[in-house]
Amino acid sequence: MRKLKWNALCLAGLLALAGLPAHAETYPSRTITLIAPFAPGGASDVLARTLADGLSKELKQSVIVENHAGAGGTIGIGLTAAANPDGYTIVLGGNGSLVFSEGVYKLAYSARTDLRPVSMIGTAQSAVVVKSSLEVNTLQDLVKRSKEEPKLTYGSPGVGSVLHLAGAMFTKQTGGQLVHIPYKGLAPALTDLQAGNIDVVFANITSLVPFLEGDRIKPLAVIDDRRSKQLPDLPTASEAGVKGVSMITWYGIMAPAKVPDDRIKVLEDAIASVLKTEAFNKTLDTQGFDRAPEVGSESFAKVLNADFDEWLPLIASLGLKPQN
Fold first, then answer.
1. In this structure, what DSSP letter does residue 321 have?
2. Which of 74, 194, 248, 257 is most buried, judging by how many CB atoms fall within 10 Å of its CB?
3. Do 136 and 168 share a domain, yes or no?
4. What is the per-residue pLDDT for 203?
5. Which of 106, 31, 35 is nearest to 251 (CA)?
6. For the chain, what is the mean pLDDT?
């Protein structure tokens, strides 16, 4: 009889444990994958790897980076949206891959409903650069040339990327024409620009600076209302005589929508700590990033919602056709 009672008690205990929610376990207890939806080697990749290294130290668990480039970053974002919502798969996205892509791709997911924000981690300015053999020396020269020679090409990290939209905005504002050539990342586009295979690139300054060595490409202007700390002598688009062309890239961490709140809080707090470290801020400075204006899921959600409301109607007005 005692044995039967003991067995019954053990069975009841096991059933009770089985009924506990999965997120009651210590988190994280194994490796976290940080998806980088861009090609290896660029400044964004360096940013992802520096963040992963910092998170590994903060969380006392390995955080590895997997690159899944292509389709304007939507391949990597889509993998995250479809991942098990246990907090072990996160993604470093930008406004191009998270927001703009929804205006130019037919996606199997929505960043608004299938992902949730964790924290913004940084921003970056952009600039217009041309191959050295192109006979333009100012932004006004490029405007004139793009009207006279409508077959000039410009490269971007992919359809729907921030830098694709920067080019589309430029042509809409100036009345010129540029033929868009998408790449699987900015580094391949800049490499082709150096080789003279394309004419123009709208580039994040974070990735641009190393490519300026050797004088094979020429920067014309910063696409912002502020001058760049990395290229202080470069005029803004407005200073160069082209109004209404401004584009900032932001980067932030997202997770599958159903990741439990407590795990999001763990990630949020760990990221906030990493963003204060000397190693992370050194990467921001050396790679040309600016610090995130605010940190945390709540402020990042506000940025995301505001960008969706502002940019999707604008993308529709540019006449960009959805890509499969």
1. P
2. 74
3. yes
4. 92
5. 35
6. 89
